[in-house]
Amino acid sequence: MASDGTGQVAGVDVGGTFTDLVRIDQQTGEVRLAKVASTLDNQAFGVLNALEAAGSDLAALDLIVHGTTTTTNAVLERKLSKTGLITTQGFRDVLELGRRTRPQPYGMKGSFRPIIPRNLRLEVPERMDASGQVLITLDVEAVREAARALLDAGCESVVVHFLHAYANPAHELACCAILREVWPNDHITLGHALLSESREFERGVTAAVNASVQPLLARYIRRLEDALAEGGYGSELLVMNGNGGMVSSRRVADEAAKTVMSGPASGVMAAAYTGRAAGIGELITYDMGGTSTDVALIRDAEPQVSNETEIEYAMPIHVPMVDVRTVGAGGGSIARVDAAGLLQVGPESAGSVPGPICYGRGGTQPTISDANLLLGRLDPARLAVEGGVSLEMVRDAFAVLGAPLGLDAGQAAEAVIRVANARMAGAIRMVSVSLGADPRDFALFAFGGAGPLHACALAKELGIPRVLVPPRPGITNAIGCVVADLRHDYVRTLGRALDTLDMTDLRAAFDEQAAEGEALISAERVRLAGIRRVHSVDMQFIGQTHLIRVPVPDPGLSREDLQAAFERVYFDRFRVELSEIRASVVNVNTSVIGERLPVDLSTLIDPAGRKGSVAEAKTGVRPVRFGDAVFETPVYRREWLPLDAVLNGPAVVEQMDTTVLLEPGDVARGDAQGNLLVEVGA
Amino acid sequence: MTLDPITLSVIQAGLQQVCDEMDLSFSRAAFSPVIAEANDRSDGIYAAEDGALIAQGAGGLPVFVGTMQYSTRVLTERIASGQTAPPEPGDVYIVNDPYLGGTHLMDVRFARPFYRNGELYCWLSNTGHWPDTGGAVPGGFSASATAVEQEGLRLPPVKLFKRGEMDREIYQIICSNIRVAEQRIGDVKAQAAALTVGEDRLNALMDRYGDATVTEAIAELRRRAAQQMRAFIAGIPEGRYDSTAWIDSDGVVDEPLAIRLAVTRKDDTLQFDFSGSSAPCLGPMNSVRATTLSSVYLAMRHIFPEVPISAGAFEPLTVTGIEGTFLDAQYPRPVSGCAAEVSQRIAEAVFAALVQALPDRVTAAPAGTSGNFALGGFDPERGRGYVMYQLSGGGYGGNADHDGLSNGCSTIGISKAPPVEIMEQAFPVLYHHYRIHEGSGGAGKHRGGFGLDYMVELRRGEARASFVMDHGRFGPQGALGGEDGAPNAVTVWRGGSPHVPEHLSKEQDIPLMAGDRVHVKTPGGGGYGNPAERDPELVQEDIFLGYYRSDKPEI
Fold first, then answer.
1. What residues in B contact A202, CB-CB < 8 Å?
2. Which end of chain A has the least Cβ crowding within 10 Å, N or C?
């Protein structure tokens, strides 16, 4: 059966705690949502549970798009397949030595565990020089011996990583041919295949990550496909990549490393899509969860993609990923008073176990979530169902926290929110500044369980004039699956001075990249609205090491146009003009995007459930503290608000998946897509 | 106090933010890889009257933590005494004189006055390591210099920018005295623009919270940092803790130099007394006062990273007894080794003294050398000269929690080493191996981390090799019964025969021909605690993984 994406489409995203689903019937506009517990040992159960909870008829489903944390969790928790490395003689320790760093600028402690242990890193005689000339031919017998040794040691996958393979992959390819004869499965990763760039540590780690998660992902996807088929599903399964695009389940395990960090990426894709529909192209996404906050930048409705992500200390994965930065502050961040008598919030977190005091799982230290509860921002009535904890216990914890500061419990809770917001604002500012943007030119897109609770205050702190709260902030990642496009990214190193570059070469490089991506996308069984190419170059002044990305809307542009575009981008970023120094084009980049048919998100909140007036959507009033004053604050049910609602802060808007807080002075307006657009008060 | 604690926290974060943005802007726009990649730079805010440190970027080079406030103080003193022209809006002073609150000549400081309502409010300043400032050898690290003039061009504080305009005449004098001058314009503009970024951000912060509030907060934050440091110091058992740390030699006279330190905790202060340390030396292993103080501060910050960088944090610390020693060298003593090597040995002395008092916090000695190997030559294939630097890490010390990190960055730095592939692209060299320095981690309950072991061959042409390293004679110290890490080892293979530098870790201009090789093994970290207490399973694992040879058991 051909899936054409015009019938029922389901997006299923597996997160650390919940598996979220959104199913949209494109013909009728009917939307079903589901939130079930994640099953982390085999995420397929959770996926099926979510489909079932939404009452899905698998046979009637037209397309399933899936975001999985299988590979992300495997890397972060080091629960990896046993993987061996075959590498150039003399260089097996590259993966362990790294780049001569330490985890923190200050403090001489900290440790690092290489992704492949030393006994499984074997060397064979071979050597290329930097220009790709063979200095020592590959010792074929040594390869066979190494393969046997790794198999004997129980390795399931293998990496071949030779020095300078980006310049000449002949030895890696020859080694691969030998391995194919003896290795019992397809889990062979070549160092140059995912990333054909110099820098042996980064390329090696990227390949090692790929090999270490490949068997896990392949097994998981097979299981899921089988289970779906058993349930009657006959269409395409697409899987999210970290670049915010999707690939066919048949191909996804080949480049398994590309699925790492795909969860945050799909949230950003949803934000870009929502923003585009609302006519807001410049967004800072703000996804606040329990232990951390993810921030990303969207410009001209396009998420920024980076090829140089380091997902933790000394763990670079250099494949294209949506540039999501993580800030160590979430609902579970713990507040304390330090030795200088200053209030600090985080980076220590209560996590989900024991979690904040208000979770009732044994947490005793005051957190951001507890502060929100005590201040009335979260509904204290919910405590009853969480079990075993009273508001008094929360109040006591803040009284203890506030005592050395001369603050009562309420003042202390208010202080915790202010300090947390200031820290998050600083971090968001650094993220945007490091990407060359002034936050005041953006709208803040608030999502995640806690994002809409803090967004308006944060926006005020940052000078951001507007906050966009989508209809379903708590399931944004699943929505990202429904709206994401097919996508392939290409990077080629050119390394040529602009004044000697033959512009027809540049044009040819763009065209080649585009042709390759279009061939792949055309082969998928998904109907598309069209195929789009996005070109850019990475440039620098000759002698620099950092690069700056210059968008190239017209691949046939002239040398003068490119020089001018570069100088403009550079000046905007650094306020430096450098006519004295020549420019150089380092990388040529093309993304080929297979645009899916548009998905209507206005029915994410059931139109039939909306009331005729704001007054009818009001469920009550409760005291909420803002600054030093307590306001009797109206509480609304989001699902009941009319599309064109106008709300004046202070107000609390509660919905199934999150709580939205408007501060005094804020004004929120509903739009036709079901978003709330908040004009932040002074 | 009238300021509420929350506004105080918010302004603390805001000041930090101003500095972090200056750091970021400087690095990303810089040309010199030493700044752009190795982050060998720092940006901060300093008091108008005496240069006292108000805030400094979190990602700045640790050794600059203390030096920049001295540099700024000297500037204010010289302006007050009329030796230096008074500031006007838009001016930027340039200075690299080591004896005026500096490190070595390559660390060039810029200072920009910051005005509010027409009054000088504070100084914005940054330091960047320039790849060359002239002198006998490219890059400035001469192992055998005997006077500062041989190390490069020395600049007193002068205005490089006057009311926003660069003084092209001063700039031309600088460019005529340094190598690869054509790229410096990019670094100069990046370094100055970072201070402009800081000015904008600080103005925004003060507009938002009001000048009076920010002024009050700055004073209060300084007081709080001192209070926090005092609280930590009060947790140290009262008493005196002694240590000695050794420098192999000064590069000219082959005799070790001693850093003798007695740390005394009394009430809530710590006194660092360096009396009895070696006299000023002939070669470049002298330190200047600012660098010596800064080294003590950075060591303390490694021990108590929780205390924010502020002049207040240094108030409870006093340093005595450096007068007349090589830790307070005067003009014209050569000083190129002070920031990279001597500073790390001072930090080692602090660690070795305080690990006795704070065994849970302080580690055994880390490798403590920057492993500076420079190769200068002519590449006949490309028809041009080159200077290659290989800076290397080493093992960190074992500690109460775990074994030491392998191939960690120098104590005073935060930079990454360049990949082998990049080195082979850029220079006519071939690495034969790049591996763990096996057996180098000092034995202990928690062993030291491992150093690096590399061998590199000159492929074509002729070249000269120079080494400014240390810990070749003595390995990094073990602590609390742990053994020392393995020392640094350099062997130069010329015409197939080995040559070991007379000073082990230092020698200048060793001639090499195509096919000759340099073999370097960097130090491992010191071990922590009695090796007999090491978990036998970990001992087995270390042997299984080949970290140690089984015929030479480490227990």
1. 419
2. C
Q: Are A583 and A560 in contact (CB under 8 A)?
A: no
Greatest alpha-carbon pair distance for chain A in Å reads 80
- Tokens encoding B367: 């490798």
CB atoms closer than 10 angstroms to residue B511:
12
Query: Within B33-111, where are the H helices?
Result: 33-36, 64-80
In the three-class reduction of DSSP (H, G, I as helix; E, B as strand; rest coil), residue A203 is classed as helix
CB contact under 8 A, B186 and A104: no
pTM assigned to the model = 0.90
Give the pLDDT band of residue B12 (cuts 50, 70, 90).
confident
d(CA A71, CA A80): 9
Cα–Cα dist A139/A135, whole Å: 12
Neighbouring CB atoms inside 10 A of B129's CB total 26
Rg, chain B, Cα only: 23
Give the whole-angstrom CA distance, residue A348 versus residue A343. 13
Q: Which residues of B touch A201 (CB under 8 A)?
A: 419
End-to-end Cα, chain B, rounded Å: 58
Q: For residue B467, give the nearest of B322, B369, B344 by alpha carbon.
A: B369
CA dihedral of A258, A264, A267, A269, whole degrees rounded to 10: -40
Cα separation values, A491 from A119, A196, A197, A534, A535, Å: 34, 9, 9, 12, 10
- Listed in order, strand segments (DSSP E) in A313-417 are 316-317, 321-322, 324-327, 333-337, 343-349
Mean pLDDT across B162-175: 96
Taking CA–CA distances from A340, the nearest residue in chain B reads: B228
Q: Which residue has the tokens 């980064």?
A: A202
Location of structure tokens 């550079």: A570
| A contacts of B436 (beta carbons < 8 Å) | 93, 96-97, 118
| Separation CA A4–CA B85 (nearest Å) | 75
Q: Is the dihedral of CA B511, B513, B514, B520 positive or negative?
A: negative
* DSSP element (H, E) containing A630: strand A629-637
State whether residue A618 is helix, strand or coil: strand
Q: Which residue has the tokens 């998050």?
A: A424
Whole-Å CA distances, B78 to A559, B49, B74: 50, 12, 6
Phi/psi at A496 (nearest 5 deg)? -130, 140
User: With contacts defined as CB-CB under 8 Å, which chain B residues touch A195?
Assistant: none
Report which of A349, A351, A309 is spatially closest to residue A72, judged by C-alpha positions. Answer: A309
pLDDT tens digits, residue range B480-535? 999 999 999 999 999 999 999 999 999 999 999 999 999 999 999 999 999 999 99
Establish how many alpha carbons lie within 13 A of residue A569's alpha carbon, considering only the half-sphere containing its beta carbon.
20
- Cα dihedral sign, A369-A373-A374-A376: positive
Q: Is A584 left (phi over 0), alpha (psi -120 to 50) or beta?
A: beta
Q: CA-nearest residue of chain B to A131?
A: B425
Backbone CA torsion sign across A506, A508, A509, A511: positive
Place of tokens 């040992």: A41
Determine whether the interchain pair A430/B391 forms a contact, defined as Cβ–Cβ distance below 8 Å: no
> Which of B175, B202, B406, B432 is the best mutation test for A, with the most CBs of A within 10 A?
B406
| Furthest-apart CA atoms within chain B: distance in Å | 75
ipTM for this prediction? 0.93
B-contacting residues of A 77-96, CB under 8 Å? 89-94, 96
The span from the CA of A180 to the CA of A175, in Å, is: 9
The distance from CA B367 to its chain's CA centroid, rounded to whole angstroms, is 14
A502: CB partners within 8 A, 6+ apart: none
Is A440's Cβ below 8 Å from some Cβ in B? no
Distance, CA of A643 to CA of A106 (rounded, Å):
52
Lowest mean pLDDT among A390-399, B318-327, B349-358: A390-399
- A506 and A295 in contact (C-beta within 8 Å)? no
